Structures are given as structure tokens and as C-alpha cells.
Amino acid sequence: MKAVGYFKSLPINDPESLLDLELPTPTPGPQDLLVEVSAIALNPVDTKVRQRRASADGQTPVVLGWDAVGVVRALGSAVRGFALGDRVWYAGDITRPGSNAQFQAVDHRIVARAPASLSDAEAAALPLTAITAWELLYDRLQVQQQAERPVSLLVTGAAGGVGSILVQLARQLPHLTIIGTSSEPEGAGGAWLRELGAHHVISHREPLAPQIARLQAEQGLPPLRYAASLTHTPAHFADLVAALEPQGRLGLIDDFGPGDIDVMALKGKALSLHWELMFTRSMHGTHDIAEQGRLLAEVARLVDAGQLRSTLAEVMGPINAATLKRAHAQQESQRQRGKLVLQGF
Ligand SMILES: NC(=O)c1ccc[n+]([C@@H]2O[C@H](COP(=O)([O-])OP(=O)(O)OC[C@H]3O[C@@H](n4cnc5c(N)ncnc54)[C@H](OP(=O)(O)O)[C@@H]3O)[C@@H](O)[C@H]2O)c1
């Protein structure tokens, strides 16, 4: 099968950073589907793993890629609920070979049928970010609780991949007022966020707490009970602590160094900190691993009901090393609005 992979961890402008390869088609294990991949999306994790993980033995290439849409071509002996020919979507498992390949073996419990109303490219934009946003909102921050009281949710980096679906999911809950951040609240970034459902857009180039205080004083913004800090957390941490109401809940998904945030700052207001990692369930085979398949099925249902839309920004071309190099370079800019997708081999 065709695949894109690499042996050495290199900057994206190095000719060997990503290579077109011919690899054996994987054999599905008992819990696996063998999926013929038709479209994939880029995520920051693709570039981070490329920068950090080389081939373990120098011989076996690393194949990246998590978001995928494709068709089931073979079923493991323990698989239930899927049939040959099903069109599926999933975000895979960070411990296994990825979706930058014509065929991929993936545990059926983290897979669901793709939304019928979306093209392969539109659907590929969603799974990884939808799982992250869903788990952060419902399993970690538990925004569905205390729904009788109007409260606010602040989303930093809201126009990126995760934020673009998180804002839409949060907008399903009528007790939440959503504030998204953008570098250009009055420009295209702000317009994108308002279209997706943000009630207010503020600038992450200015201190956040005074902007929240202004919205509360001038527009009656409800108390800030939740913050989803999606990126650059150390830069915004003091503002998030200042803006959250006492007993508020702070959710994190990004990477930073030891000592970059001071958890003692949370004590005075008894703020709670909630980590989300969308690979936890698959990486550890948790008792509730099948929740990911179930939430992807629910997201597909909401898409087909017209309540969520794809966050696709651009279809960059076919799945090969040349297109993937351009996509990695663009993803590394950290200025991405919505998602980059590649389609076909
Ligand atoms: N834990 C998990 O399970 C998980 C899952 C997915 C992603 N992640 C991580 O979460 C982070 C976000 O992922 P993503 O896919 O949403 O990334 P992304 O699409 O690359 O996010 C880009 C967004 O970040 C915004 N941004 C840039 N500088 C900022 C700043 N100083 N303050 C606030 N926002 C800023 C940009 O807005 P402007 O262009 O307007 O500046 C842009 O819209 C990444 O670190 C990723 O690795 C973790």
C-alpha cells in the first residue's frame, strides 16, 4: 500500500522529513477494523510527534496521521456493530501506525459511522477535535451540570481546530454564554467565531481579565464559571485565574514546561483544574474506551441534524509527501483557522 512516513525526526523543510513509501497492508487484530482511508486532517499532534519521535529501530518508518475517513474492508473476529463497506470516521490511537496510509487497522470501539451529509473531506476535519472538545466540555469541565444558572464559558484560541468545534458544541447548551478569543476580534477571526456561535469575541493579544470585566459591567455577562484554555496557557493563566468566579473550573489541553503555571494561584478561589487528553482512553484501554465511538456517533447525528457543521478550512491536495509537507508547515505556523484536509492517494 502507499503510505507517507519517515525514519529521522527532521525540520519540515528537510527533503527526508516525510517520504512517499510502499508498505505492507496491516492485518487487523481481533478488535480492529481494516479501513481504506479516503481523507485525513492535520492536527498539531502530527507536527509535534514528527519533531519528537524517530523510527525506533531505524528500519520501521513512523507513519503519522490521526483524523481519518474511510471505508471498512475487513473486520477482526471480536468486532461488533460494523459491516464491510461501512463509511467510518475516527481519530485513532497515538501508539499505533497512523492514517497517512491507504489502509489502517483501528480499534472498532473508537470508531463510528461518518455523517452521511458531509463529503469525505468535510468529515475528516472533525473527529480528533470533536473528541477533544466533547470530552473537555462534558467529561472534564462537566458544563452540563447546574444548567439552571446562566454562566459564561471562555474559550482561548477559539478559532483553531479544537475551538471551532468546541464553540459549536457549547452553543447547544442554552445556559452558557460563550466568549471566544482571536487575534482579530473585529476581523475575519471574529466573524468566523460569531458564525460558529460565540456570543462575544475578545482579543488574546490584550490581557483577558479586563476585557471580561468590561463585558460584565457593560453587557451583563454572566459569571465566568468555565474556561477552556486551548493554547498558550502560561501566557493567559493569571488572567484566567483573575476572571474565573470562585469555585470555577479551568480546562487544559496544550503542552507547556514544568513551572510554567503556578497551581497555588488556584487555591484562593478554590478553582479546579481539569486535563483533557483525547488519546488517554485508547492509549490505556480504559474501561470506558467505547465512549469515544459513542460520542463520535452522537457528533455524526448532530451534524446530520444540521446542528453542527464541518470546520474544514482547505483541501490541500492528495495524500502524499509533497502535500503533507505543505500542510505540516502551515500547521506549524499556529495561525490556522479551522482544519487542513488531504484527500485520496
Ligand atoms: N489534549 C488533547 O487531547 C489535545 C487535542 C487536540 C489539540 N491539542 C493541543 O491543543 C492546542 C490547540 O489545538 P488546535 O488543534 O486547536 O490548534 P490550532 O488549530 O493550531 O490553533 C490555532 C489557533 O491558536 C490561536 N492562537 C495563536 N496564538 C495564540 C495566543 N497567544 N493565545 C491564544 N490563542 C492563540 C490562533 O488564533 P489567531 O490566529 O487568531 O491568533 C489560531 O486560531 C495544541 O497545542 C494542540 O497540540 C490537545
UniProtKB/TrEMBL annotation:
Keywords: Metal-binding, NADP, Oxidoreductase, Zinc
Family: Belongs to the zinc-containing alcohol dehydrogenase family. Quinone oxidoreductase subfamily.
Biological classification of the source: Bacteria, Pseudomonadati, Pseudomonadota, Betaproteobacteria, Burkholderiales
Biological source species: Roseateles asaccharophilus
Protein name, as recorded: Zinc-type alcohol dehydrogenase-like protein
Molecular-function GO terms, alphabetical: oxidoreductase activity; zinc ion binding
InterPro entries noted in UniProt: ADH-like_N, ADH_Zn_typ-1, ER, GroES-like_sf, NAD(P)-bd_dom_sf, Zinc-ADH_QOR/CCCR
Pfam families in the cross-refs: ADH_N, ADH_zinc_N_2
Annotated ranges, domain Enoyl reductase (ER): 16-342
Annotated SUPFAM superfamilies: GroES-like, NAD(P)-binding Rossmann-fold domains
